[in-house]
Specification:
2 copies of one chain form a homodimer. Chain A is elongated, with a radius of gyration of 33 Å. Chain A contains 35 helices and 33 strands. In chain A, a hairpin with a 2-residue loop joins strand 21 and strand 22. The first copy, chain A, is 46% helix and 17% strand. In chain A, helix 19 crosses helix 35 and helix 34 packs across helix 35. Chain A is α/β, with parallel strands linked by helices and 876 residues long. In chain A, the strands form 7 sheets. The first copy, chain A, has an 8-stranded mixed beta sheet. Chain A has an 8-stranded parallel β-barrel with strand order 26-27-28-29-30-31-32-33, surrounded by 6 helices. In chain A, strands 1-2-7-5-6 form a 5-stranded antiparallel beta sheet.
Chain lengths: 876, 876
C-alpha cells in the first residue's frame, strides 16, 4: 500500500485517494504551473489510522520521510536547518469540501534554532519571530487543542504592556518574548512541551488531521450531507511561500469568470505584501485583480495564462489562490468555482456556445435547486443585516413592507399605496384578500402545509410560517421577539427562502428570468422523460405555470373554489335542514364551479387537467368553535351564529387529518361529488363546443379500498353519462385516484382494477407513514430530530425513499400488475424537489406536478435524472 | 352434468352441491328415517341458470320431469290429478343458512281442478280451498312478486263482509270465492294469469328460487358474511304432508339436547293439528315436547329413536322439524343445532366425556367469540324489551341502573346504595371515580378507543359509546332520544355487547364460568402454540388476567399511572419553568412509579412484563382549552388556571394522534423516560432482592426509524446500568419497540438491529394505514361504510389482512432478516379477536396480548388456529 504521493504523481481524477485539494495540486503540477512543491498523504492512510484505533499505519512515516527528503533535495533546503530552513504547510483535504475538520498549520519547521535561520535568510528578524509565534499559536490551538483565546489574551496583554494598538507596532524582541509566553501556555494547557523537532511537529500535525475527521462537527456535517464516514481525508504537505515578504510580494484569489454574473471575464481580489488569510479575513481593503497588472505585470500575464489554461483544462470556471513571493508567482490551490444561479446559467450556456462543453454537460452544470434564486426576489447578497428571528421557510423569496395584523388593514393600506406585510398567528380563508394585498406573509403558528404556506406558495408570495418566537398581540397591534417590539406600520423584511425576519428594510434584488434561463431549460426538455405538470386551482396560476413550461395540471384542488365570497353558500349547504335546501345550495355552487372549470380548461386547452373532487373536512368551511364559544360566553350569539356553532361542533374532529374528508365525505354527502362531476363535464362540453380541446382527469381523493373507489367511479360515470346525454355530446375523461393512504398503496393491485390513473399524494402518504402531522411536527420536534440526525432530511421536503418510497414502489408494481398501462404521477410537494424528482424518474412515473414556481426546477431536475440514468455522471 | 338428485342419492357431505337442507334430507333418507320423498336440484343448476343470463339450463326440466315421475310412482299420486293430486313444497337451500332468499312455496300442484280431488280425498272441502287460497297467495307473493298486502286486504274485506272475526269462521264457499279474488289480483298485478298447469307452476317456482339468489338482500347478506357469490342455491321439491288434518295430526320442533343449557336431554315444542309455521309464528301456545308422548305415544318413541340416531350419526346436537299426518311421523328437516355459549361448552365437554367426540373436536366445537357471553352479565335471552337507541358496543356485558350525569353524583348515589349508570357526553380522567362506581357507562360521543371505552373494557364494566342520538343536557340533568326524556335517577338498561339502550329494567343473567369452561380451556391450551398475555396497568387487572390464564403482560400503559391524584404532579412537571422544578416533579413521580412497578412485577412474578414508556401527548394531562377559554370569558381565570391554559395551548395539536407523543416526547423531554426506566429497574431489583423473579421488557412506542430507537435504547441501557450499579445488583431486561407506524413496519430490518422485540401496535397501525382516526370515524362513517359493503369488517375489531396485515408480514420478514431470534407479539385490540388471533398464529408471532376479559377468548382462538393449521378442519 502506497500512502504518499508527491504532487508530480497524482491527477485531478484521484479525488477519492488524494482529496480534492491534493488532486488539484497534482493536476496543476502536471500542467507545469508554478506550484510550490509538496506531497499528499492519501485518504487510505487516514482509514488505516482509524482502523488501527488511531495509530499511524506501519510504514507511513517512512514514506513521509522519503517524500520529505526528495522535497528537501528539490528546494535545496532542509527541514529545521538552522541556516536556511525549509518551512511547510500542512492542510487537510477530503474528497468533498468539509467544514469542521482541521484546516491549516503554516510555518511548520520553525523552532528555537531555525527561527534564526529564517531571520538571517530574510534579513527580517521581526518577520521570523512573527512567523514563529503564529506557528506556535496555530499548532497549539489546532494540533494540541489548546483554547485559542489564551493566545489572543496573551497578545492583548503584551500590546497593553507596550502601549501599542496594533501588532505591527510590536518589535522583534516583543515577538521573541511572545513566543516564550506561547510555549509556556502550550506546556501548561496541553501537558506537553511544544515540540522542537520538526519531524515530530509533522507527525503531530498529520495525526491531528486524521483525528479531526472524526470530530463531532465533522461527523455531524457528514451525516447532514450524506457523506460516507469511510471516505477519509488526505493530508497535504507543501513548501511555504510568503506573500508578506515586502512590496515585491503579494497574494490573491481569482476566478476565471465572474462567479456572480457569469460574465466571461476574470475576476478577483489582490493584496500587496500580505498572507492569503488577509484577503479572506477582510482586515485590509483588497484591490481588484486587474490592478495587479500595474504592480506585477509579468506575474499578472503569467496568472492570466494560467487562468486560460486551467479553464480550458477543467472545462469549467476555476477558482484559484495564488501568492507572489519576491516577484515570483505561485499557485496554491485551484478548484471548480462556486457561482450564483444566474452565473451558472450564463456560464453553462456560453461555454456550450464556445464549444467548451456540450449541451448535455451544460444542463448538468446548473443545479435545479439553484433556480429558485431566479424566480423570486432575494435579499441583496451584499446586504448586511441582523436577523431578529427565524421561522419556517414556507414560500421562497424576499419581501419588505409595513406590518399589518389584519387582512382588512393590509388591504386598506395596500390600496392606499403602501407595501404591506401581513402578520397573523395563522391565516384562514377569511384572510385571503389581505394575503393577496401583501408583499409577504408571516405567521407565528402553522407548518409548511398550513393554510398560509400553501396559499402563499401557490401565489408565489414570500412567506414565513411557524415563527414561534414571534409573540403576536392582536389587540395591541404589535408583536414581540424577546424584548424587541414591532408595531403596526413598522417596516420589516422577510426572507421566505431562509425563514429570516429582519427589522427595517433589507435591499432586495429582483431577478429576471434571462435568455440563458430559457435556453438551458429548452435544452433540459430535450433530455427528460418525465412530464412536468403544475398544481393550480385558478386560471391565473395555470397561465403562470404555462409560462414556466407546465404540460398540464396535475392537481386542481376544488376546495379553493369553495372559499371567499362563496363560503356563505357552502355554509348553507352544510346547514341545510331539508334536502331541498341542500339541493338549492348545491345548485348555486354548481353554476360557479362550472364557470371555474370552463376558465381553467380554457387556460390549459389541449393539456391534461386533473381535478380532485372535494378533499378537506367540512369544518374547514365553518367558523372556529373556540371563538364562537368565547363570544357566546362574553356577549351571546345570534341565531345564525348559534346555528354555525352547532354545525361546527357537529363536524369537528379530534384528528381531522384522519377524519371525514376526501371520498369519505363524498360518500356521506353524495350530492356534493355528483355536483362537481356534473359541473366539470358540462364545462368540458362547453369548451369542446367552443372549439377547444379539453382533457379532463377526475381524481378521487383519500381512497383506502377498491370497493370505495368502485362505488365512486360508478357514480362519476353515471353522472358524466347523464350530463353528456343532456348536452347531446360527449367528452373523454379519465377517472383515477390519489394514492395517499398507506392502505391504498398496499392494495394498489385491487384499486388499479377500477382506477385509470394513480397520482401519489406523497404529502399525506408521508404524514400517515410516519404518523407525523405536518401542522404539529414541523414547528415542534422536526428541528430537533434533524439536528440529532434522527432523520436524514425533512421527509415533507425530500421524499423518504426507504419508507414512503417503498410504498410508492410497491403501489407502482402492484398497480401495473392489474393495469399495465396505468398512468402514474405525483402531486405532493415532492414533485418540485430535485432529489424526489430523481426518485420519480427512477421508479418510472409518467409525470410530476408541482406549484407553478417550481415547474422550471422540476424540468431541470427531470433532465438531470434522465441524464444520470443514462450514465452521464452524477451532478453531486 | 347431473342437475337433479333424489333424496336417496345424496349425503350430508354434499352441502355445496345440494345445499344444507338438501344434503341433510338425503342423509336422513339414507338412514331410513321417515322423510317425505322428494328430490333436490343442485347449486350447479343455479350457477348455470345465472351464467346463461337467467335461463334454466338445457336438460334441467327433463331431469325434473324424470324425478317427478319417480316420485309420483313412489307415492302413487300424480301432480295435478283431479282425483288424488300429489302436492309438493318447493324450498330454497343454500350451502349456508341465508336470509333474504325465497323461502318456501307450499301446496304446489293445486289448481281449479285438483282442489276438488284434495277435497274428496280429505273429505274436507274447506281444508282444500283454504290450502288452495294459501298456495295462490304464496305463489303470487313469492314467485310473481305481487305485493302481499293486497291479498291480506282482500281477506280482511271478506271477513268484514261476512261479519266474522277469524279465518276459521269463513266457509268453504267463502274460501272458494277468495281463490277467485286472489287469482284476479295475480292477473292484474303480475300481468299473467295464475298458472293452472302444475308443471308450469313448478318451473316458475324453481326459477324464482334461482332468481332470489341474486336479490338485493341476499347479496348484501353474502357480502357481510363473506359468502362467495358463486356458491349458488339448491332447490328442494318434497311431497307435502299436513299436520293440520285433525287431532290425529300435529307438528313440532325438537333438539337432541337442551340448546340453552347444554343439558343432555331432548327439548322442544309441539302442537296438535297445526302446520309447521304455527309453531314458529307463536300464534298458538305450544306444548313441551314431552307432552307429545301423551297424544302420540308411538310417534313419540319413534321420534326419540330418531333423535338418538341422528345425534350419534352427526356426532353433535341436532335440531329437527317434524310433522305427524294422520298418526304417521315424518321428519322434514334436520341440522346441527345452534346453542348458547354455556350449552356449547357443556355439550362439548360432555360429548368428549361420552366418547362421542375427542378433545380436539370438543375444542373446535366452541366458537371463541361466544365465550364473551360467559364472562359478562347478559340481558336474559327470554326478556322482551324495546330498544330506545343504539350506540357503539364499546365494552361487553349488560347493566341496569339509575342514570346520573356527573361522576360525583354517580359516586355519591352508589355509596348510598343505588346501582348507577354514568351518562356523559364523553369521559375524561377526572371521571374515573364515577366510572368505578358505575354498573355501566353510556357516552354520546367518542369511538371504540375513546377514554370511556378503553377504561371500561379494562375494568370489565359494560359500556356504550358514541350513542349520537342520545342528546344530553347536563344543565338540566336529563337526556333526550327523539321525544323521549330520561331524567336523573330514572332506570335504564344497557347492553354493551350490542349497543342497545332500553328504558326501565331488563332482567339480566350473570353467568358463572363453569367447570366445562375451565376444562375446555385447559384442553385448548394443549393445542395452541401462541402464548397469550394481557394488557394490564394495575396489579388488580394483572391478577384478574392471571385467573383467566394470562401468561404475562404484553402491554402495561404507564400513562395510566400518571392520572388521578397524580395529575397535579404531572402538571407541575409540564409547567416547570426551571430544570430544578422539573426534576423535583419527576422525582415525585419516580417514587410513585417505582411502587407501581413493584406491585405489578409481584403480581406477575416469573412471567414477562412489557412496560411501555409514556405514550400519549402531554396535553392529555392538561385541562381542556375550550372550557378554560369559556371560563376566562365568563368569570376570568386565577393565576394557576392561566398558567394551565397557557400550557394547554402550547401543547395542543391539530392532529394529536400524529403529533408529539410516544418516543417523540421521550426525546424532547429526556428526563421523563430516564425516570421511568430508573423506576422500573429499581423495582425489578427490589423484587429480585425479595426473592422474586421479575422479567422486564421495556417497550419504546411510536418509533419511525432506527436512529430514533437507537438513541433511546442507548439512554435506556445507560440508565439501567447506572441504576444497577447504584443498587449493587443487576437484572436482566429486554429493550424493544412497538411497530405501530407504517414506516416502522417498512424499515423493520433496520429497526430490528436495535430492537430485541417487536410488539405490533395494530390499533395505531390501522389508524395510520387507513388514515382513520378511531375517535372520528367509528361514530361517523364506519357504520355507513360497513352497510355499503365498502369494508368487509371494522378494521379496528378484526385485523385488515390485505392492508395492515401486509405491513405486519413485511415487518416480520424484514425484522427476522437482521435478527433471526427477534421476539414478536401483538398488543393492539386485535389480540383478543378470534379471526385476528388466527392471523397472528399464521404469520408466526410468539404471543398475543389482550384485555383481561378477552384472555380466555384468545386462548381458545389460538387453539383453533393451531388445530386448523394442523389440518383439523375449519370451524366455520
Amino acid at each position: 500500500m502506497k500512502y504518499v504521493y508527491v504532487f508530480e504523481e497524482g491527477s485531478k481524477e484521484q479525488k477519492y485517494l488524494l482529496g480534492g485539494k491534493g488532486a488539484n495540486l497534482a493536476e496543476m503540477t502536471k500542467l507545469g504551473l508554478p506550484v510550490p512543491p509538496g506531497f499528499t498523504i492519501t485518504t487510505e492512510a487516514c482509514n488505516a489510522y482509524r482502523a488501527a484505533g488511531d495509530e499511524l499505519p506501519d510504514g507511513l512515516m517512512n514514506e513521509v520521510e522519503v517524500a520529505l527528503r526528495a522535497l528537501e533535495t528539490k528546494i535545496a533546503k532542509l527541514l529545521g536547518d538552522p541556516v536556511d530552513p525549509l518551512l511547510v504547510s500542512v492542510r487537510s483535504g477530503a474528497p468533498f469540501s468539509m467544514p469542521g475538520m482541521m484546516d491549516t498549520v503554516l510555518n511548520l519547521g520553525l523552532n528555537d534554532v531555525s527561527v534564526g535561520g529564517l531571520a538571517t535568510q530574510t534579513g527580517n528578524e521581526r518577520f521570523a519571530f512573527d512567523s514563529y509565534r503564529r506557528f506556535v499559536q496555530m499548532f497549539g490551538k489546532i494540533v494540541l487543542d489548546v483554547d485559542g483565546e489564551l493566545f489572543e489574551e496573551a497578545l492583548d496583554d503584551l500590546r497593553e504592556e507596550r502601549g501599542v494598538a496594533t501588532d505591527p507596532e510590536l518589535s522583534a524582541d516583543d515577538l521573541r518574548g511572545l513566543v516564550e509566553t506561547f510555549k509556556a501556555i502550550v506546556a501548561r494547557e496541553a501537558g506537553v512541551e511544544f515540540p522542537q523537532e520538526p519531524h515530530e511537529q509533522l507527525r503531530y500535525a498529520i495525526q491531528a488531521v486524521f483525528r479531526s475527521w472524526n470530530g463531532d462537527r465533522a461527523k455531524l456535517y457528514r451525516k447532514m450531507e450524506s457523506i460516507p464516514d469511510d471516505l477519509g481525508t488526505a493530508v497535504n504537505v507543501q513548501t511555504m511561500v510568503f506573500g508578506n515578504k515586502g512590496d515585491d510580494s503579494g497574494t490573491g484569489v481569482g476566478f476565471t469568470r465572474n462567479p456572480a454574473t457569469g460574465e466571461n471575464n476574470h475576476y478577483g481580489d489582490f493584496l500587496t505584501n500580505a498572507q492569503g488569510e488577509d484577503v479572506v479575513a477582510g482586515i485590509r481593503v483588497t484591490e481588484p485583480l486587474d490592478s495587479m497588472g500595474n504592480h506585477f505585470p509579468d506575474c499578472y500575464q503569467q496568472l492570466l495564462a494560467a487562468f486560460a489554461m486551467l479553464e480550458n483544462h477543467y472545462r469549467d470556471m476555476c477558482d484559484i489562490e495564488f501568492t507572489i513571493e519576491q516577484g515570483r508567482l505561485f499557485l496554491l490551490q485551484t478548484r471548480v468555482g462556486k457561482r450564483t444561479a444566474a452565473a451558472a446559467l450564463r456560464m453553462a450556456v456560453e461555454m456550450a456556445g464556445e464549444g467548451l462543453i456540450n449541451e448535455r454537460e451544460a444542463v448538468l452544470r446548473v443545479q435545479p435547486g439553484q433556480l429558485d434564486q431566479m424566480l423570486h426576489p432575494q435579499f441583496d447578497p451584499d446586504a448586511e443585516y441582523t436577523t431578529l428571528a427565524k421561522g419556517l421557510n414556507a414560500s421562497p423569496g424576499a419581501a419588505v413592507g409595513r406590518v399589518y395584523f389584519t387582512a382588512d388593514d393590509a388591504q386598506t393600506r395596500q390600496e392606499a399605496g403602501e407595501k404591506v406585510l401581513l402578520v397573523r398567528p395563522e391565516t384562514s380563508p377569511d384572510d385571503l384578500h389581505g394575503m393577496i394585498a401583501a408583499e409577504g406573509i408571516l405567521t407565528s403558528r402553522g407548518g409548511l402545509v398550513s393554510h398560509a404556506a400553501v396559499v402563499a406558495r401557490g401565489m408565489g408570495t414570500p412567506a414565513i410560517c411557524g415563527a414561534e418566537s414571534v409573540k403576536i398581540d392582536l389587540a395591541a397591534k404589535l408583536f414581540r421577539v424577546g424584548d424587541t417590539v414591532v408595531r403596526e406600520g413598522d417596516v420589516i423584511s422577510i426572507n421566505g427562502s431562509t425563514g429570516e425576519i429582519v427589522i427595517g428594510e433589507v435591499p432586495v434584488v429582483v431577478p429576471e428570468p434571462s435568455g440563458p434561463f430559457e435556453t438551458l431549460l429548452g435544452w433540459a426538455d430535450n433530455y427528460r422523460r418525465l412530464k412536468v405538470r403544475t398544481n393550480a386551482d385558478l386560471p391565473e396560476d395555470a397561465r403562470k405555470a404555462l409560462e414556466f413550461g407546465a404540460e398540464g395540471i396535475g392537481l386542481c384542488r376544488t376546495e379553493h373554489m369553495f372559499l371567499g365570497d362563496r363560503l356563505p353558500t357552502v355554509q348553507r349547504m352544510i346547514l341545510a335542514d331539508t334536502e331541498a335546501e341542500e339541493t338549492a345550495a348545491l345548485a348555486e355552487l354548481h353554476a360557479l364551479q362550472r364557470q371555474d372549470f370552463v376558465e381553467l380548461l380554457e387556460a390549459m386547452d389541449g393539456l391534461p387537467v386533473t381535478v380532485r373532487l372535494l378533499d378537506p373536512p367540512l369544518h374547514e368551511f365553518l367558523p372556529n368553535v373556540e371563538e364562537l364559544l368565547v363570544k357566546q360566553a362574553k356577549s351571546g350569539l345570534d341565531a345564525k351564529e348559534s346555528q354555525l356553532l352547532a354545525a361546527a361542533e357537529a363536524w369537528r374532529e379530534v384528528n381531522p387529518m384522519l377524519g371525514t374528508r376526501g371520498c369519505r365525505l363524498g360518500i356521506l354527502k353524495p350530492g356534493l361529488y355528483r355536483m362537481q362531476v356534473r359541473a366539470l363535464i358540462e364545462a368540458a362540453i362547453e369548451r369542446k363546443l367552443a372549439g377547444g380541446d379539453p382533457k379532463v382527469e377526475i381524481m378521487i381523493p383519500l381512497v383506502v379500498s377498491k370497493a370505495e373507489l368502485a362505488l365512486l367511479v360508478d357514480w362519476t360515470r353515471e353522472v358524466a353519462e347523464a350530463t353528456a346525454a343532456d348536452a347531446l355530446g360527449g367528452v373523454e375523461y379519465l377517472v383515477g385516484t390519489m394514492i395517499e393512504t398507506p392502505r391504498a398503496a398496499l392494495t394498489a393491485d385491487e384499486i388499479a382494477e377500477v382506477a385509470e390513473f394513480f397520482s401519489f399524494g406523497t404529502n399525506d402518504l408521508t404524514q400517515m407513514a410516519f404518523g407525523f402531522s405536518r401542522d404539529d411536527v414541523e414547528g415542534r420536534f422536526m428541528p430537533e430530530y434533524l439536528e440529532l440526525g434522527l432523520l436524514p432530511a425533512n421527509p415533507f421536503e425530500t421524499l423518504d425513499q426507504s419508507g414512503v418510497g417503498l410504498l410508492v414502489r410497491w403501489a407502482i408494481e402492484k398497480g401495473r400488475s392489474t393495469r399495465p398501462d396505468i398512468k402514474l404521477g405525483i402531486c405532493g410537494e415532492h414533485g418540485g424537489d430535485p432529489e424526489s424528482v430523481r426518485f420519480c424518474h427512477d421508479v418510472g412515473l409518467d409525470y410530476v406536478s408541482c406549484s407553478p414556481y417550481r415547474v422550471p426546477i422540476a424540468r431541470l431536475a427531470a433532465a438531470h435524472a434522465a441524464l444520470d440514468a443514462d450514465g452521464q455522471g452524477s451532478t453531486a
